[in-house]
Every structure is written in C-alpha cells, then in structure tokens.
Amino acid sequence: MSTRMVHRPTRAARPISTMEPVVLDAPPQLPDGRSAVGLQALLPMAGAGVAMSMMMFLRGSGFAALGAVVMVVALAAAGAMYLTQLGKAGRQRRVQRERYQDYLEELREQLREDEQRLQEQATVLDPPVSRLLDVIRSPARLWERRRADIDFLRVRVGMGALPVRPIQLREQSTPTNPLDPFMRHEAQSLMRRFELTPGLPLRVDLDCAGDVSVISPDRHEVVALASAILVQVAAFHAPDDVTLAIVTTPERAMSWQWARWLPHLLDRSSIGPSGPTPLLVTAPETLAELLAGDLEERATSALKSFRHNAGRAEARTRSRLLVIDDAHGQVARALASPDQFVGLGSLGVTVVHLLADRLHEPGDISRRITIDGGSLVLEDLTASPPTTLVGTVDEVPVPLVEGLARGIAPLRLSADSYDDGTGTPPADFQDLLGLSDPTNLDLATLWRPRGERDFLRVPIGVDPVGRPVLLDLKESAQLGMGPHGLCVGATGSGKSELLRTLVLALAASHPPERLAMVLVDYKGGATFAPFAEMPHVSGLITNLVADAALVERMYTSLDGEVQRRQQLLADAGKVTDIVEYHLLRAVQGERSTLPPLPHLLVLIDEFGELLAAKSEFIDLFLRIGRIGRSIGVHLLLSSQRVEQGKMRGLENYLAYRLGLRTLTEMESRTVLDTVDAFQLPPLPGNGYLKVDVSIYQRFKAAYVSGPLTDGADAELAPIVGPMAKPMPVFGTVRRDTDDDVPEEPKATRRTTGPTLLSTVVEQMATSDQRVQAIWLPPLPPALTLDQVADGIRSTPEGLRLDIAGQSGTGLRVPLGRLDDPARQWQGPWLVDLGSSGGNALVLGGPGTGKTTALRTLALGLATTHRPTDVGIYGIDLLGNGLAGLVGLPHVGGVASREDRERIRRTVDEVHAMLAQRQRIYTQHQFDTIDDLRAADEHVRAEVGCVDVVLLIDGYGQLNTEFESLEPKVHDLLARGGRYGIHVVGTARRWNEVRAAQQVAFANRIELRLTEPAESSIDGRLARGIPSDQAGRALTSGKLFAQIALPRLDGQPDPANAGLVAAAESVRGSWSGPLPPPVRVLPAVLPLADLADTPAGHGVVPFGRFESDFTPAVLDLFGQDQHFFVLGDPRTGKTNLLRLVAEELMGQYSPDDLVFAVFDPRRGLADVVPDAYCGGYATNATLAQQLSAAVCEELAKRQPSDSARSRIVLLIDDYDILAASASQPLGAFVPYVAAARDTGLHVVMTRRVAGASRGLFEPFPLAVREAGCLSLLMSGDRTEGQLFTGVRPTVLPVGRGQLIRPGHPPRMTQTAYLGETKEH
Predict the structure, then answer these.
(1) Which of 364, 468, 788, 1074 could crosslink 459 through cysteines, CB 3.0-4.6 Å?
(2) 850 labeled binding residue
(3) Which domain holds residue 1164?
(4) Could you confirm whether 120 is annotated as catalytic?
(5) Is the pLDDT assigned to residue 422 strictly greater than 80?
C-alpha cells in the first residue's frame, strides 16, 4: 500500500462560538385600583370649599347665590370624575398582558430559529459516524482540527439536549409593586422550554483529560462507543497531532483488528522489518516501554512548564496520546507517568477505560460515560459543581468503522519522528566519553543523539572523592548552569588545560550539527592550536595582539553571527529561541528548509587584554549575555585576572564561574566571592566551580595533553543495534542483540608523541560533518584577477572570468576579493559602475595601489565584457602607469602626462560621445542606459560601445595643470552616468576633488590614507588598513577588500609584465569591432587634405576641427566679415594669412578683389600679385599713407553700389605697426563698423604677448566689436582671458582655438602651405 500526502487547508467548518445569554424583559406590574390621584381628587374639594366660604362671609349679597351655584357645580364635577375612573385599572391590565404576550411570542420564534440553526451547525461540525465518510473524502474537512482549536479532541458520543444559551428574567418587582403573576408564569414557561436545546451532539472532552471511564455491563456497547471515538479522532485529527494506542487482551484482539489500519496507531519511531510498530498491545507496561522516550520527553517539558507557571498550557502545544484500555470485566489498568510529580493530563495523555462496573474505575477520573442500552449519561467531574448530561448513544456499524479506517490508512501529513537517546558518563574522562580505545573511535556512537538533560553537559574533572564534576552549559531554565561563564586563573594554574579539556569533552560528545565553537586566543599562544582541524571549530582566532585589523574583524564576525542567528529565528516564524527552532526542524524532518543552527560556544582566552585593545567588545559581550540564551550562543571568558570596574555589569550574565588558583585574594573574591581560589595549592588543574548560590564544588581538572597510553590491548565496546523481526499482530518491544557485525577499525594517523587530545582530534577531523565557518582566513596580501574568480575560460566572445553573480543589470566588474566577516563570506568583489551615479573614486596615499586598482578595473572589464559593450579610455596624469592597457581591445586610447594634446583629445572625444548619446536618446526615446543596452545592434553600432569608462589617474592634477579640461570632466560626472559614461579616478585625499564634484563620486574605494581621519567612509575602519599592505581597500559598504593584481597567470607578482601578457591574450581572443579610437590632429595638415571641402564665394577652408575632424572654414564675405588671428612667433600666423589670400585670389578676379597688405616683417611680400595688390606697407609711415588711400576709396562708396570690388586688409604682425604712437590703422576705425556695406574685410594677426592690453586699442577693438572670427594660437597663459572664457595656452605649431561669436571655442589645426617664413 502506497502512502498519499495530504495537504491541510485553512479550516472551513469553524467551531461554534459561545452564544450570548438572552435576558427577558420583566413582566408588567399590576396597576393599582385607586379612582383618582393627586390634583384630580383635590379639585372638587377645593370648589366646594370656595362655595361655602362665599355663602358664609357674603350673606345678603349676590355673591351668596353665586357661592351656591359653585357648590352645585363642584359636587357635579366630583360625581362625574368618580364615574369616569370606574373600570380603568382592568382595561390597563388587559392591554399590558396583550403587549407582553406578543413580545414573548416574537422571542419564542427567534429562539426556535436559533435552535434549528444551531442543530444544523452542530451536526455539520460533529456528524455521526454514519456521515464520517463524507468528512474523509472532503479535503477541506479531513484532519481539520488543530492543536490550538477549542474543539480539539472533543468527540461526539451521542445525541441529547444541551444548555447552549442561558436565558434570564430581569426582576423589577417590589413588595409594594408586584409583577403580574400570570405574565411571570408565561415568561418562566418560555425559559424552561428553551433552557436546553434538543437534538445536539453530546461531546466528551478528551484533550489532556487523564483517566476517563466508559461504563456498561454490555461490552459490545463500550467497544462500539470506543470505536466511534477512534474513528472520529482519526477523521478530524492528523496523526502528527494525536497518537492512538489500544491495550487489550489476545482474546479480544478481533474487536480491534480494524484499528491497525489507522496511521494514528503506528509508532514511526520504532521501525521494524514490517514497518512501524502498531500501538496495539496486551499490557500497559508494554505500551509504556514502547513510548518510553516520548513519555520521558513529555515529562521533561511538563516540568519546565510548571517551573514557568504555565501549568498544562505547554501540554496543549504538543501532540496528544489517546489510549483505549479494554479492561471490561476487570479493574482499570493504569498507565504510569515517568515522573510522579506530573499527571497524565499534564503529559497530554488521555486514557479511556472500558469498564463493566463503576467500582472498577481508577482512583481519580475526570469524566465518566455511563451507557444503559440506548441511553447515555455524561458526567464532567472536573467542573465545579460537576455537570451531568443525558442523551442517546449513536449507532456505530462495525463494517462502516473498518471501511473508514481503511480509507484513512494511506494518508500521511508529515514525516516520521525519531527518539532522542540519553547516556550516563563515567567518572574517568576516557570512560565517561566512551573512549575505551582513543585510537579507534566510533564517531557515530560518540555523537549519538543526547537527551535534553545530557545536552551540553560534560565532565571537566573529578571532585575530592573521585566523583565526576559536570559542567552544564545550558541555561538555568533547562536545569543547566549557563549559558555564560567566566574562567580565571593565574599563570601555571592549569587554565589552558582546563579549556582544552572542556573543548575536547564537548566535541567528543556532540556532533558538529549540534555544537560549534569559536576559539579565540588574543595573545596567539598554543592553547587552541591543536583544535584547528576539528570539525566543530567554526573559527580559530589567534595572535590578535599583532594586528589591530584582526581585532576589528573578529568583532564584526561575532556581531554578524549574532545577527544571523536572530534573523534565522525570525525567518522560521514565531520561534522564540533555539530550542523551539530545533523542535521545528525535527518536526519537519527531512523536508525541513530551515538551515542547521548548532549551539555556539564562544571561548575567549585573555579577554581582559582584548577589552583593553577594543573597549567596544564589552557592548557585544553584554548583548550576547542578554540574548545568547535564545539564539544558542554560550560565552566563556577566560583571563588571568579580572578588573571588576571594567566589566560594566557583564558579571551579572556570567552564571557559572571556574576559579583556578589566583595571585591575590581580591581576584578570588571577584570570581568566587570567597578567597578559596587564592588558597588553592600551587598545582595546575585545581579549582572551584561556582553556580550562583546553588553549586560550589571543588574539582581537579582532567588532563588531555599528556602522552597517549598504549591502548592496543583495550577491548572495543560492544556495538548494539536493532534486531529485525517480522511485524506481529500486537506491538512489542524489539530487543537489541549482540550479533551485529562491528565496523572495521578506522586507520589513524600517528605522529611522534601523540596525546589523547591530538589523537581524538585527528580522528574527528576525518568526519564529513563540518560547521559553517564564522571566522574565515584573513585576506591574502596579494592575489591575481583570475584567482578572484573560479578561473578563466575561452568563449566565442573572448576570454572570460568565471564570476558568480556577474549576470544582471548594471556594469559589474571584478576588482578583487571582498571580505564580509559579518556574513562569514569572502568572494569576488564586484564593483557596479552602473549604480550610484556611475562614477568611482579610488583614494590612497603614495604606493598604496591606486594605479593598480585602475589597471585591474580595466582588465576586469575586458575579461567580463565585449569591446562593443565597454570602451575604456585612460588619462595618466601621474606617470605612465596605464600604458600597459593599450594592448587591450577595449581600450580606445591612453594619454600620458607628457602628451597634453592627447589628454585634451581624450576628454573631448568622451565628451563628444556624451553629446552623441544625448541625440540618440532623443531620437529613439531612450530613458536610461539600460534602454541602450537592450537596443538592437544597429543602434549599438551608432555609439561604437554601449558603456564608456574614462580612467583618470591623478584626478587632483586637473585643478592645477589642466584647468581647461575641468568643465567637460565635470559635465561627464554630472550627466554621464545616465548615458553610460563613467569616470573612475584616483586621488591622494578628498580635498583634491572640488566640493561640487565630490557628490558625483558615490562609489568610493579608500586605500591606506596618509591621514585616516580624513576618510569619508569610516575613520575608525580606515585606521585598520595596514600601512605596508598595498591594495588593501575599504569599500563604501564599510567592508575590507584586497584589490587583485592585473594578471591572469595566477602569479601574485606586481610586475607589469603580467598585465602586458594578459592584454595580449585578451586581444588575441577577440576579432570583432573595437571601440572608437581617440583621434588626434596631425602635427602637419597638408592643404591637399582639404581639397574635397566645398569653397567659393569667400568661403575659405583653412583647417580641421579637433572634435570631429570636420573642415574649419572662413566665410569672409558672408557671416564672418573679418578674421583676427592671435599667436606668438612661429605658431603659423603668416602661413594662415598666405592660405587665406591664395584661396581668395583663386576664387575672385582682380576686378572683384583687391588687397591692402600691411607687412612690417615682409612675410607676405610674394603672396599678392600686382594685379590684386592695391598697396603694400612695411612700416608705420607707409601704413598710414596706405590707410589714407584706402579710406579715401571707402569714403566714396555707397551701400547701393553693387559693382564695387572687395577690399581685404591683409595685416600681419599688427602689434609691430601699433608700436608707434601714430596709430597708422586708426583711420579705418570709422569704416569697420559699416564694412559689410562698403565691402571692407580685415584679416589680421598679432602676438599673444601684450594682447590683454593691445586688444583694447581702437582698431583691434573695432574689429572685434564688428563680430569677427578669431583664432587664438599658442601663447602665454598669463595673459589671462583674451576672449570670454578662453585663455591662451601652449599649443603645437598651426594649432589654435577658433572662436566664433555665439559658439563655444573649438580646437583647430590649420593647413600648411609649405615653406613659409614665420616670425
């Protein structure tokens, strides 16, 4: 028969709630018979009095007659009033009775409807046995009752009338105003009618009821009732909630054969060859033996419950045990409790005794059911006073009962449970732990499940009379001594050996799945060194005194473990402590999704010096002291001495004290409150165990570090196991046999001079069980990028690092190994450049590895992304550290400090990408970089690479030496992240970055700072970075990391050759498109390169723009009108004038164009032929004469004269002409403003030196104000801003900044005509 798992949904048929009592209104009071009351009776009398007064005092007048009339009227009124009051009381009584009878009739109808509805609901909730088949077939009703339900184990036994709703009569009568007796009788009749509701199921409460008796002379009647109880329990309660058992005799076995089908009757903790043992037994002793473990556990839980004043409340949260005792014709048989102090009810046990006579009942019963034919009497003896209900017994067909049992047989709700074992330790250490042969340990036997009393209770030595001294780390609520303690002993007192004994005893008696340890030795001694390979050790921390960073890391690790355990308990549901957590995992069995949570012993040696090094530990210890009990953390602090003032109340949580010999009486009093530890003999291992005021015991600690004695002749302890037997009709106890084959001895590793400690630890180290590591090894001083990942592999997309968690949105790049001690995790450090604005800054002092971080970042991008996904551009302002990146296919260009032009071009190119992406976003309606990453290949090809990373090594140099680049870099910082452009820089300190841009670097990586207090992450953590550890970083998440070396060969050598080789390997694995390279203008631009540029009508192409390499043109006869060139000698000014003149002469004839040449240095002597030359001046005098002649011509011109020729003033080295005081060109000032109307054009040059003053001379000022096109070539920066926002700078020959009014300046390379005489 195969089993079928049953899902139990939310309960559909809810228990009937308690009904509110009905309070009847009081019957009406009897009306009185008085005819008149109050003023009505006085009115006639007052009238008669007035009339008599008038007749007596006013005799002889007309008023006497009036008085007589009044007298007559008063008497008549009195008579009329008397007649009207006759019969009023009777009429009032009749009206009140009719109204009250109508009220009672309405209430009767309502109560009748409530009665009918209650009968229907009760029948649905507790159907008869004949209708249980519908319950079993209904997934919503099967096993619907939970342990917390109020009707749990309330079983139907018959039908009868029950008092379900109290009905009360409100009394309002007084002796002077009695109620109407007739109406009162009617109300009482209604109360008697509805006092009991007929036709309701009679239910007996069997939940934790102890002993219950069912009495009838006819055995068939009691067996039928017991059968009804069993099938109802099996139908409404899951096997996990109720266990059934039957005690009968072999002669009566046929009456109970059907019950063996019930899964509730199977003991799954005792699995035999034929399956679970049926709890159908012939004696209560057999049942007690089969359920010994369960009953013992129930007794322990009940004792705890009573200790916490919870009474039987705890028993109602456990599974119940219902026993049927078929003792008909005999005296009831008792099921003994494991503890005399705890009754069966407190254990959650109910025993139903089937008896023939009341005299056969046990001494104390809670309920009694008496059956006489078809009638039934149910007595609840626990009520005060006892209650009795009478009804009829339900019919229970035997075939139907067996059919119901067979229907329930294959159903299961949860997995099997298991029983915990217990053991008694001997006095000797080896014998106590079962170490008869330490060289051949049976770990399965040593780590067998321990009972709750023995859990975390181990021997540490013997008392003066040789009895074992046990240390119980459990809390006092679990009858333990813990959970926290203190061990103090001077040097030579045996403190280290005592700690070793305790650790070894715990490890040898508890499996790693139940107990883990963190062993801390602040001074780095050898106390815990032998336990390094023990599977229980989740952290072995030594030599903290040598590295302050390890102290901080230990604090974080322990604090993280405390938080992890709290979170596990919270995630498990309403679990308050680790004990409930383990019970929950045990109930869930193999299907449990809860992770293991062993108890954790944190043992710290020399904790006093630890507190002196980091005082914050006291807060952590105090928190563990408060919550360690619930999360399963046990704290044992050890030191040579304890200063009371530094404990800050921690001593209140240290329940047990281990006091070895001390050097002073004060130290002894601090630990034991006595001077006994000071008076101990100077022999190691002697001490006192003190637990609050209940235990004070002297002991001698066991010694486990001594030489191992020869155990070759020692006999192995017999290994016992269950003996397979066929499943009998009745459940019996399976006895162990001695013929099991023992396991073969395991080979052990023996070293020179093994000790008991080393031998036991070596064998435990072979176990496959391991606890979760809390303390991981510190980060290595150096590692390569491939060591950060799981290796490197070749893919169709190139070389790739195997990085877990690389997938997902953003731009994640491996940079090193991250250490998160709070989560007990070390793994790849993935920096997401796509988050927090998309920029990052690496800070650190000289030699800390800033440049290496950038190289590793670049190599990490290259080994996790394609060149079409990420393009890298580098600017090295500190040296030549990024040169090795040039070989990567992802790198579009690297500019060193000496190549200032390439630096500027790199920034310009990246900034141009920003403008391009902005246009693409608008065109395709993109919102974020994720939209661009998800775009098709056509859109991605437009940008060349999706993400762009600009590396700036030495960001602080921008402020001092490359100020012109700052605006564009700041723009990239502010807006680039949205468009996939990321800036990653390095700096020595934060103040090298302007305050406005610091916020843009949300991703921050801090190496060792020259002044750790300047850390923007955490100054305290920054001080923990070793000054001699290059690459050790503090992340913005306040975690430490080690930046990997940019190598892929697994050799942690910082030599740059590894980066070059890695770059070659990456380039060799990629054959696809590359990111756009950084384009740099050539040093010499031949004029022929501009041959394909459209020209004519005064448009002169004279160079190419650096930003996009488009031609730079001069529209002299159009929008530009004038051309003003500034540049120091030998910068290409004269070459540019020659180029402009020759191009214009090639476009116009001598009739349309004439030049007036001002050439003090004669560099243009051979440029303009005579046909085009209107005049040539080489000095100030000739210049003045030529100016006058030209001005005379200009004065004759009118704007309407379209046939005039254009006059071009070709002026070279204006500053030489302006040196004379005569201002030879000043005559042109009035004509410059109207030059467009007169056909005048100025093409002039001058030096940058002195331009800050010379530009304000009349003629240059007039030219500039006319809106001329300007070209600022190489010059001295100290001249300041010659144009708005533009300063001169040192540039190559022929290079200049083109300034057109209304447009930003653009770098331009002018074309070269050939040999030109430059000045």
Answers:
(1) 468
(2) yes
(3) 1085-1312
(4) no
(5) no
